[in-house]
From TrEMBL, chain A:
It comes from Allosaccharopolyspora coralli. GO terms for molecular function: FAD binding; oxidoreductase activity. Keywords: FAD, Flavoprotein, Oxidoreductase. The keyword Oxidoreductase applies. Pfam families: CO_deh_flav_C (PF03450), FAD_binding_5 (PF00941). Residues 1-169 form the FAD-binding PCMH-type domain. This is Xanthine dehydrogenase family protein subunit M. Signal peptide: none annotated.
Automatic annotation (TrEMBL), chain B:
This is 2Fe-2S iron-sulfur cluster binding domain-containing protein. Residues 1-78 form the 2Fe-2S ferredoxin-type domain. The keyword Oxidoreductase applies. It comes from Allosaccharopolyspora coralli. The lineage of its organism: Bacteria, Bacillati, Actinomycetota, Actinomycetes, Pseudonocardiales. It comes from the Bacteria. One of its GO terms (molecular function) is metal ion binding. Pfam families: Fer2, Fer2_2. Keywords: 2Fe-2S, Iron, Iron-sulfur, Metal-binding, Oxidoreductase.
């Protein structure tokens, strides 16, 4: 096995081009488990920990460029105001030790259906900045996940950053797990209201072969809010709207039975999480909270 | 491969490190620092918690090569010579140590918490220690230890 330690982004891209079968290691919180348990023996490890370019974030015109190697702990402490949905999800990742090391870029690289960062990225309409020695391209988060633990990266490509708008409305995330910390999600749901665009964003985790949006639920709610004038004059939502939103979210799920939960349970849980996060975000919206980031 | 790392303020050089090896293995088996314990090897139990560049991490989930040129702090580095850190004293005094296997990781995690927040609430303590499993104490004595250590540190800083 080789251990590749590039110290610049250019060197990292060159190394990935030269060793397309190298396993990329960022925080190590996923990769090292597989190595420790002899589940994977890649010909090389490509450590991105020495690439300083990946460890920062900045803002241009209200859009945030989040470097691939920014750990969850920093998303929580530094970006909770601008990216509340992603920050709430980040708080549910593992333990403090894991949040200190695990990164959003690593989550995208692993592309697990249960990755906690994925639903809020879907709900926010994030774009993934992908680079290789051939150049840079942008992949919409909706098209990034191509299968169970598979993503749209070509063998010579690395995730450089994620781009997403600072919140213009309330965002929420909720997760079902068997305890309050250190759990892989049984299922998760993320919701973002985008009052400026008058759209709604959702993301489902651990509820289908890939993280995915509940597009019918998004459209239903956005139209409902537009038709009733509630974007401008927010008043309490009738139970029928909450219920239908939950039903449409559950209909978007295609979960499996596994050790963490049955398919039926996951569908039920998605329905409950969707209703519940809608209640929270709508309360915030009515109270005028988080309308301006 | 060769890995150069500073551990508890001392420079070390480890040779013949396997590329897929963890920092935990390197600390224990190559550098003779068995304080960090190896239990789950998947980041679930926290017994291998160390400081990496001042930030707590599970040493089992850090590749040894990722520690190249970095600063590692283990439980062996908490005491000042024979003088135990207040967190260590408090663990001993409150009976927060039973079999002792989780203790090194809990000490580093609790030490980090008190460095960041000298007066944590019980909720803060529970959240900060959520990544460290203990199968003996039932955690209550560990909570007592962190409260006592917090008081001790406050007394010492006033003295």
């Amino acid at each position: 096995m080789d251990f590749l330690r590039p110290t610049s982004w250019a060197d990292a891209l060159a190394a990935k081009a030269e060793h397309p079968d190298a396993l990329v290691i960022a925080g190590g919180t996923d990769v090292m488990v597989e190595l420790n348990f002899d589940q994977r023996r890649p010909p090389a490890l490509l450590d991105l920990g020495g690439v300083v370019d990946l460890t920062g974030w900045d803002v241009h015109d209200g859009r945030i460029r989040l470097g691939a190697a920014v750990p969850y702990a920093r998303v929580i402490t530094e970006l909770g105001d601008r990216l509340p949905g992603l920050a709430i999800a980040s708080r549910t990742v593992g333990s403090p030790q894991i949040r200190n090391r695990g990164t959003v870029g690593g989550n995208l690289g692993s592309a697990s259906p249960a990755g906690d960062a994925h639903p809020p990225l879907l709900a926010c309409g994030a774009d993934v900045e992908v680079c290789s020695v051939r150049g840079t391209r942008t992949v919409s988060i909706s098209e990034f996940f191509t299968g169970v633990k598979r993503n749209a990266l070509e063998p010579d490509e690395l995730v450089a950053a994620v781009h997403l708008d600072a919140a213009s409305g309330p965002q929420q995330f909720s997760k079902v797990g068997t305890r309050n910390a250190m759990v892989i999600a049984v299922c998760t749901f993320a919701l973002a209201l985008h009052p400026r665009e008058r759209t709604v964003g959702t993301g489902l985790g651990s509820a289908a072969p890939t993280p995915r949006r509940a597009t019918e639920a998004e459209q239903f709610l956005a139209e409902e809010l537009a038709d009733t004038g509630r974007w401008d004059v927010p008043t309490a939502l009738p139970d029928s709207v909450n219920g239908k939103f939950g039903d449409l979210a559950a209909a978007a799920a295609a979960p499996i039975d596994d050790v963490r939960g049955s398919s039926d349970y996951r569908k039920h849980a998605i329905r409950v999480l969707a209703r519940r996060t809608l209640g929270w975000t709508w309360n915030d919206y009515c109270a005028g909270r988080q309308q301006c980031a | 491969m060769r890995v150069n790392v500073t551990v508890n303020g001392r420079s070390h050089q480890a040779d013949d490190v396997w590329e897929g090896e963890s920092l935990l293995y390197m600390l224990r088996e190559r550098l003779g620092l068995p304080g960090s314990k190896n239990a789950c090897e998947q980041g679930e139990c926290g017994s291998c918690t160390v400081y990496l560049d001042g930030v707590p991490a599970c040493a089992c989930l850090v590749a040894a090569g990722q520690a190249e040129g970095r600063d590692v702090g283990t439980v062996e580095g908490l005491a000042d010579g024979a003088q135990l850190d207040p967190v260590q004293e408090a663990f001993v005094e409150t009976g927060a140590v039973q079999c002792g296997f989780c203790t090194p990781g809990l000490l580093v995690a609790a030490h980090d918490l008190l460095e960041r927040d000298p007066r944590p609430s019980d909720t803060d303590v529970r959240e900060a220690l959520a990544g460290n499993l203990c199968r003996c104490t039932g955690y209550e004595k560990i909570l007592d230890a962190v409260r006592l250590a917090s008081d001790r540190r406050a007394e010492r800083s006033q003295a």
